[in-house]
Amino acid sequence: MDLKDEINRRRTFAIISHPDAGKTTLTEKLLLFGGAIHIAGAVKSNKIKKTATSDWMEIEKQRGISVATSVMGFEYKDYKINILDTPGHQDFAEDTFRTLTAVDSVIIVIDSAKGVETQTRKLMQVCRMRKTPVMVFINKMDREGKDPFDLLDEVESELGIHVRPLSWPINSGASFKGVYNIHQTSLNLYTPNKQTVSETIAFNDLNSKELEDFVGERDAAKLRDDLELIEGVYSEFDVNQYLAGDLAPVFFGSALNTFGVKELLDCFVEIAPSPRPVETLERTVNPYEPAFSGFVFKIHANMDPNHRSCIAFVKICSGKFERNVNYKHIRHGKMMKFSAPTCFMAQKKETVDEAYAGDIVGLPDTGNFKIGDSLTAGENIHFKGLPSFSPEMFKYIENADPMKQKQLQKGIDQLMDEGVAQLFVNQFNGRKIIGTVGQLQFEVIQYRLLHEYGAQCKWEPIHLYKACWIESDDAAELENFKKRKYQYMAKDKEGRDVFLADSNYVLQMAQSDFKNIKFHFTSEF
Ligand code: G4P
To answer: In angstroms, rounded to a whole number, what is the distance separating the alpha carbons of residues 463 and 188?
Structure first.
């Protein structure tokens, strides 16, 4: 197979959802269809149970599981599918944002009873920013849920994307009879079964009397009415609108009962994009370029504290990656080769000799990489699109063991390179501030500093509303601002200027007083 065919058959995506909507279950069923696993129940949920937010064993367990399930590759029909896992717990949302920069499309799972929930809304913002094509799977149709038309309206208004149903449910809950697959014009009758696929009947003529035989008179009439309404309200499905990130096709089913999943997967491989061009600071990189290039979007530290090694996850953006070939680490300006790159098939990590654009390779590393690093065959290009978002919680980090100052410093540096949280150094008093998305990250940092670096930290409160990156074309005004706000100025890890606003009011005042300064809430602008 030539390079182009290899790349064209790749589908790299993430499943996102609010916790408990059914992401793990759907992932597992997709793997089942791909023959990558053979029994249901083989994929462990990587979520930290709500009751155990402070249970360290849970966090460690999660780290152990999540390396195995970080990427799940499998073959389906003629396609190579890579599912990128995203952490379930909202305190690790930043990790999920970064993972979304490495996918070419997304499947959103929604619980039919709960509709669109907060976490989904936040993640969709990132998809919208990047124009990532999304498909929606409305799950748990075997339970009483919201009306499907209401759900579609909710998705449209809450997620800010047009929708087009490609399958349609016949009832829900106890009287759920199945779905009509609009895309393939077939009827899929529901028989609850956790392991196997239920019956699909080709059905081109909805007016055929046979429909009554399968679903009964009342439901047949309702289905015909619903479909007529759908054809009237929604325009024809246009794959280009989907690829542009403007339109989400919607499927209904029950992941737990392996129902509606094959339809989703079949449509997905057919229409989801193969690897797309990626922007760098210098130029757009086309996936079919033969020269390898890629970027690090995730770093996973080793579980064994005695060996400070980690795995850097690289998304291949162009060409072919080969084992034992020299590649350039752009930030360090040095050549490196990798004797044991791994790829992820099903839940196994295997050494690979080659991988293609769209694939993810895991590179064993001893601290050379940080999130966002570019790796190429030699060309000096820098991949963009791994922004940090303004954190939501802030604390001063202080040394609690004066003998271990060095260890603490090293630990903080490496954890920040891994993207665990963000570090800001206050320019006024030199104190270090850690910004996170949730409380759990502070606990993880403290725990890992102690167990991996032998350093002890303590947290001290600081009241901050937002950290924003500032810039201006007006150098004098920028200087003036920094002088006036010197107590609130900090530098991020890259040395960029950050304004620490302690209230919304202060931020608004600053914005109105300094019209020539731009305040950004993500680090990339
Ligand atoms: P998540 O990864 O999105 O957090 O969700 P997960 O797949 O773990 O599913 C959350 C719960 O919802 C699980 O139940 C799962 O069995 C259930 N579930 C998933 N899909 C369906 C479906 O189509 N119908 C119904 N009725 N339930 C579904 P749990 O009791 O929390 O966990 P478990 O003990 O069953 O693993």
So the answer is: 56
Q: Which atom, in ligand 1's list, is nearest to the CA of 21?
A: 3
Give ligand 1 pocket residues (Cβ under 6 A): 17, 19-25, 45, 47, 88, 139-140, 142-143, 254-257
**What's this model's pTM, rounded to 2 decimal places?**
0.86
Ligand 1 center–CA 143 separation, angstroms? 12
Residue 111 CA to ligand 1 centre (angstroms):
10
CA distance 449 to 461: 19
Strands (E) in 327-449, as ranges, are 327-329, 334-336, 342-345, 348-351, 354-356, 360-365, 374-376, 393-399, 422-426, 432-436
354, 359, 365, 371 alpha-carbon torsion, rounded to 10°? 150
Average pLDDT, stretch 458-482? Answer: 94
Task: Enter the tokens of residue 429.
Answer: 């008093």
Distance, CA of 352 to chain centre = 24
Query: 139: CA distance to ligand 1 center in Å?
Result: 10
Nearest to 313 by CA among 344, 283, 287, 291: 344
**CA 246–ligand 1 middle distance (angstroms):** 29
pLDDT above 90 for 437: no
- 61 pLDDT higher than 80: no
Number of H helices, E strands in the chain: 14, 31
Using one digit for the tens of pLDDT, what is the confidence trace for 228-281? Answer: 999 999 989 999 999 999 999 999 999 998 899 989 999 999 999 999 999 999
**Sheet strands (E) in 104-241:** 105-111, 134-139, 162-165, 167-170, 178-181, 186-189, 200-202
Mean pLDDT along residues 78-90: 84
DSSP letter assigned to residue 404: G
Q: 183 C-alpha vs ligand 1 centroid, how far in Å?
A: 27
Give the residue, by CA position, lying nearest to ligand 1 atom 15. Answer: 22
Which residue has its alpha carbon closest to ligand 1 atom 26?
A: 140
